[in-house]
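3.2 Worked example (two chains)
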Amino acid sequence: MAQNWIKVKVYVFPYGNTKTKPFINSTMADIKFYLEKRKDKTTGEPITENVPILLFYSFAGQRLQYYTGHRIDAHKWDAQNHKAKKGFAESSNINNDL
């Protein structure tokens, strides 16, 4: 499954002085959203209904995985664009929150 990453440049100003030229940090932050991969305990099949949406954040070698508080059916999720597919009632609310 192909994953898209969002690149963010980080500018660091020395001692809080915003009038000087900033240092550009070569480390980039990566942010992506994906559905949790979990299997049903009884059948062993992947769960595809009411699946939690997770945020994955990576910066300077540190990683954070966070539950966003949203759930969605797998067929309503666009894995390549990391958002809910258009045409469903809850998709605009979820995409705005993400």
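3.2.1 Second chain
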Amino acid sequence: MATADNFMVSDFPDVDPHQFGPDSDAVTLTDPTHDIDGDGTLDTLTFHAEDSLVVATDLDGDHLADTITTVHDDGEYEAWEFHRGEDGEPRWEQA
């Protein structure tokens, strides 16, 4: 039977769910554990950070998270999409 432990890893990106926002840096995903879109490539990492569950997904295979979703213990959640500006600077937009 699948449990939460099957979906957690101990080596995860440095993401503070309470400080994450538009000016956060790019998030590197070196060891995704799940194939969320079913294409045969591992693209998603799920982990706990503080009092939140974080789901980070690399949709284009560049080892950077394209989406970050945080679900806090109180039920609140945020979803973010990664973009690069024309100047090359990373930025996150709330989805």
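3.3 Remarks
The mean pLDDT is 88.
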